[in-house]
TrEMBL record:
The keyword Oxidoreductase applies. The gene is anfD. The keyword Oxidoreductase applies. This is Nitrogenase iron-iron protein, alpha chain. It comes from Paenibacillus mesotrionivorans. Keywords: Oxidoreductase.
């Protein structure tokens, strides 16, 4: 296992042990970088904080809740509307965010009065919403505001409302994963078991670790309902606050994202005896295996097989079409969390992509173990990389595409590497059989997009002055485009060859049919 030292991080020797290259025949004990440790000073990490992990990842997808941050306004702004956690109540939780907006005077004199005022004002402003989550931040935690006491006072004065308090200051863990743990445990301690649900099926589950990114949850819900399964609650995508208080009555916890929500599953098993079953909604084979496991648990395997047969026959030919065109393309799989291992093997086996690098910003060693085990030899595995390390890795590995979040994705675009948003998707949902084909389509469109070829043309050395007549410049650009088409098979595919370039130009600018004076054909 050769450790990998980035040139940009040679001044931080501790970073060497946070990147490794997976060697031939190595087991996981030899191919693991250090992970889930405090960020090394000077490395300029792109991690989120524990507060972000609690509010942004776990809490905010709850749909019928006023989510209020007790701290400076910048904290809640950073966690607002940056993922597509859609809901069926007109996306209330995406359109509205709330903060007490603590100032310096509140740090000095306390902000409990401010918090109580904000809670009452928020409920009055949105009288149809009777549920609230309060998130603690670094500022309110450091001065010791008693948020629980304020919440109790408000609930006593307003009996029709219910408030959940999540003490999750940003410094509560080495990364946002620390916030996942805090809100999981706080929810089961405070709210689970306080509502009794109506049971309508012989097969009842909690769907845990599912956040309904661009409708992912709705795809999976359709499969469960076709199997006759009642979904008691969804933790927490499009989830109802009161449904999530009734999680203790499920017969099975079906867990999708183990990194963010395994904690509540484990506690439900200990306290209520509810077993946990890990599933995977990405990829034909992993999804089929997951549906079979659920069917086997309830004794309804035939219903699962019927869905698998129908969906595979419908979508597999289309997936195979994309696989032929994506085979051998190089991918940096940099999603940050559980998609590291959800996708690593599936995109290789079912789409033909070669994973040349994996990384995680906030994952634990278990995430790296599963991710590295499922990617190819020679892959570069990185824990908690920064922007400069990402740029250096792209320069070295020459990927055809990267799957990552918006911040590193926008950096990749600047160096003409296409990216797909692994966190919030481009054209999701990506779960389910149709969703997996949709993912393949987005990959194909990104890799073969003409814009990434054209963006490499250097027009700064053009021999003509910039004030030459536009038609002349257009003629020269047209010639350059023809040359690019001649040398690029993918552009020929999109343009139809040389003649179509001229036809398109003449269609858009009819006066160019006549050759400008002084310009040779």
């Amino acid at each position: 296992m050769p450790h990998h030292t980035f040139k940009v991080s040679e001044c931080i020797p501790e970073r060497t042990k946070h990147a490794v290259v997976k060697g031939p025949g190595e087991d996981l004990s030899m191919a693991l970088p250090l992970g889930y440790l405090n960020t090394i000073p000077g490395s300029i990490s792109e991690r989120g904080c524990a507060y972000c992990g609690a509010k942004h990842v776990i809490g905010t997808p709850m749909k019928d809740v006023i989510h209020i941050s007790h701290g400076p306004v910048g904290c809640t702004y950073d966690t607002w509307q940056t993922k597509r956690y859609i809901s069926d109540n007109d996306n209330f939780q995406l359109k509205n965010t709330f903060a007490t907006d603590m100032k310096e005077k509140h740090i000095v004199f306390g902000a409990e009065k401010l918090l109580k005022q904000n809670i009452v004002e928020a409920f009055k402003a949105f009288p149809a919403i009777k549920r609230m989550t309060i998130y603690q931040t670094c500022a309110s935690a450091l001065i010791g505001d008693d948020i629980d006491a304020i919440a109790a006072e408000v609930m006593e004065a307003m009996p029709d409302v219910d408030i959940f308090v999540c003490n999750s200051p940003g410094f509560g863990g080495p990364s946002q994963s620390g916030g996942h743990h805090k809100i999981n445990i706080a929810w089961i301690n405070q709210k689970v078991g306080t509502v009794e649900p109506e049971i309508t099926s012989d097969y009842v589950i909690n769907y845990v670790g599912e956040y309904n990114i661009q409708g992912d949850q709705e795809v999976m819900q359709d499969y469960f309902k076709r199997m006759g399964i009642q979904i008691l609650s969804t933790f927490t995508g499009n989830g109802s606050y009161d449904d999530l208080r009734a999680m203790h009555k499920a017969q099975l916890n079906v867990l999708e994202c183990a990194r963010s929500a395994e904690y509540i599953c484990n506690e439900l098993r200990v306290r209520y005896g509810i077993p946990r079953l890990d599933i995977d909604g990405f990829g034909f084979e992993p999804l089929s295996a997951s549906l079979r496991k659920i069917g086997l648990f309830f004794g309804i395997e035939d219903r699962a097989e019927a869905i698998i047969k129908e969906e595979t026959e419908r979508w597999k030919p289309e997936l195979d079409w994309y696989k032929e065109r994506l085979k051998g393309k190089r991918v940096c799989l940099w999603p940050g969390g559980s998609k590291l291992w959800h996708w690593a093997n599936a995109i290789h086996e079912e789409m033909g992509l070669q994973v040349v690098s994996v990384y995680t910003k906030f994952g634990h060693q278990g995430d790296m173990e599963k991710g590295i085990a499922r990617c190819e030899e020679g892959a570069l595995a990185i824990d908690d990389p920064n922007e400069l390390e990402g740029l250096e890795a792209m320069e070295k590995l020459k990927p055809d595409i990267i799957f990552t979040g918006k911040r590193p994705g926008e950096v990749a675009k600047k160096v003409r590497v296409p990216y797909l948003n692994a966190h919030a998707y481009h054209n999701g949902p990506y779960k389910g059989y149709e969703g997996w084909v949709r993912f393949a389509r987005d990959i194909y469109n990104a890799i073969y997009s003409p814009i990434y070829h054209l963006s490499g043309l250097d027009i700064s050395k053009d021999e003509f002055d910039t004030d030459v007549e536009f038609a002349t410049q257009a003629r020269i650009s047209d010639a350059g485009l023809k040359e690019e088409v001649r040398t690029s098979p993918s552009l020929r595919q999109y343009t139809g060859g040389f003649d179509s370039v001229t036809k398109l130009r003449e269609r858009d600018y009819p006066y160019m049919k006549k050759q400008p004076e002084g310009v040779q054909a």
